[in-house]
Amino acid sequence: MKKIIINADDFGHSKENNEAIKAGFQAGIITATSLMANMDGFENAVKEILPQIPHIDTGFHFNIMEGKSLTKSELLCDSNGYFNNSYQNLIIKSKQKEFLKQTEKEFRVQIEKVLNYTQISHVDSHVHTHAIPEIFKLILKLAEEYNIKYIRTQQENPYIVLNKIFNTKFPINIVKNVLLNYFSIINKRAMNNSQVKTNDYFIGVLYTGYMDESAILNGLRKIGKENTVTEIIFHPYLPQDIRFTGKSHNYREYLITQNPNFKETLKNSDFVLTNYKN
Length: 278
Description:
Layout: E1 2-11, H1 15-26, E2 32-35, H2 42-49, E3 57-62, H3 87-93, H4 97-115, E4 122-125, H5 133-145, E5 150-151, H6 170-190, E6 201-203, H7 213-221, E7 228-234, H8 248-257, H9 260-267, E8 271-274
Parallel strand pairs: 1-2, 1-7, 1-8, 2-3, 3-4, 4-5, 6-7
Helix pairs in contact: 4-5
């Protein structure tokens, strides 16, 4: 049996993200979500949205890329407490013991804030920062300590959707795909002696910024093996004014979750929708 988990990242980022995730779960497309502790929508997520969807599978979305640090650690943020590292800087700094010490401190404060409101079944991160191997080893250690059962890895089989490969974002996404596939090989090896598990495959990097039904379905066609779990990530956003275009690609991802034809296609495929909790 081939299983898919459709996980909505960025729960707690804003009210608009939260409303989109709620609607996607209620429509039966989104099966899990990942909660971030340091963004403006956190209180809305845990106090207003979660009580409306208590059965959603909730994970932890570790964030050291955007917004304010909860610890204001100097290697993670600027003098005002805002995260200020690029992904490249995080790769370089990940070799430093003091950086990893400060990252661990930030993780603990963030996750314990989340655990005050909900149990969590899985952990991932904003902009895939936990994929960086030294950070991944740290997160793996902490996942074992906090009894988190699953950590995301990003092994995405390369595939082509002809009407999308000429998008200016595609070359950048290829670089991301190659890097994250390489990191996933290293990180899965690090899990060999751990009770923590991971997904087998992943969809959501190659067509970041222009994900739609065709990108998802073409990606699923590359999953040939039985008894596998593939995680698909969405970043849905539901603006209060539909004329808003600042996050149009995130709004399109919300629309996927409201598409009954897409839901029916998944239902009639050889994949079964599930979540990490189950």
